[in-house]
Amino acid sequence: MNPAQRDELFAWFERYVEPFRDTDPEGRINIQLKIDHTRKVCAAMAELCEGEQLSPSESTLAVVVALLHDVGRFPQYRRWRTFRDSDSDNHARLAIEVLREERLLEACSPEEQLLIEEAIRFHNLLELPKAITSPTRRYIDLIRDADKLDIWRVFVDLLEQPPKERASAATLGLPDLPDMVTDSCVTALAAGRIVRLDTATCFNDFKLMQISWIYDLNSVTARKLLRKRGYIPILAATLPQQDRVKSAVAQALAALSA
Ligand SMILES: [Fe+2]
After folding, report:
1. What is the residue extent of each domain of the chain?
2. What distance in angstroms lies between residue 38's CA and the mean position of ligand 1's atoms?
3. How far, in Å, is the centroid of ligand 1 from the Cα of 126?
4. 181 C-alpha vs ligand 1 centroid, how far in Å?
5. What is the DSSP string of 60-117?
6. Which pTM does this prediction carry?
């Protein structure tokens, strides 16, 4: 992958997403959310590559993984009007379908094609199979970190908006009940485990899940960026101020600073 190939893929992305904007106002906000997310994951990836001292060619490949990791979101939203995989289809699988249909990686070596597809396929798994020790592992770890860094940004921005202006699909249809948290989600966070999306029943649980991602960051640079960006205290401030919630959050923040 050379810089010219990378630039061509960036130009392809802009062309590819354009027709998806042609929908109703609610749909346009949701599509725009994923366009902005992709651009910002690319920027976060560039920061991670610098911090983790990847070579220029490794960084080019990593940024391409970032560019393509969520292309499945566009056909997913057009077909099902949701970003919830469990109500539609796995968006990582859909992304690979797009890459193949569009013959995007034909100019890449077979090794690079495999690496890009693998990194995308594993970017959204709750837990990675321990067996992945191939060279792809590094890129999987990086895309998972870059993706989370920007998902935190999306939600912090969203919380600042009046509920009516929020991208409707971003909260996955979870009801925003200010005083409610689900016991099992608080318990998981307090135990230092990832809160599972399928256990979330309200928007606050979703915030607990996002806080629990602290326990799933791979690189020192991602932890540093998360501390610098200050997303977790902002998310935590919007949770019900119950003792067990506060103590689970404090523990996660302490783990982030350790
Ligand atoms: Fe993403």
Report:
1. 3-147, 174-257
2. 7
3. 13
4. 25
5. HHHHHHHHHTTTTHHHHHHHHS---GGGS--HHHHHHHHHHHTTTTTTS-HHHHHHHH
6. 0.93
**E strand or H helix at 165:** none
Name the class of domain 3-147.
Answer: mainly alpha
Neighbours of 165 (CB within 10 A): 9
C-alpha 214 – ligand 1 centre gap (Å) = 16
Confidence check: pLDDT of 106 > 80: yes
Q: How far is the CA of 37 from the centre of ligand 1 (A)?
A: 7
φ and ψ at 71, to 5 degrees? -65, -20
Which tokens belong to 90? 């796995």
133 CA to middle of ligand 1, Å?
22
Average pLDDT, the chain: 94
Tens digit of each residue's pLDDT (9 = 90 or more) over 26-75: 999 999 999 999 999 999 999 999 999 999 999 999 999 999 999 999 99
Tell me the average pLDDT across 185-203: 96
Q: How far is the CA of 226 from the centre of ligand 1 (A)?
A: 16
What is the 45 CA–ligand 1 centroid distance (Å)? 11
User: Which pair of structure tokens corresponds to residue 171?
Assistant: 């909260």
Q: What is the dihedral of CA 47, 53, 54, 59, to 10 degrees?
A: 20
**What is the distance in A from the centroid of ligand 1 to the CA of 211?**
17
- Taking only the tens place, the pLDDT of each residue in 218-236 is 999 999 999 999 999 999 9
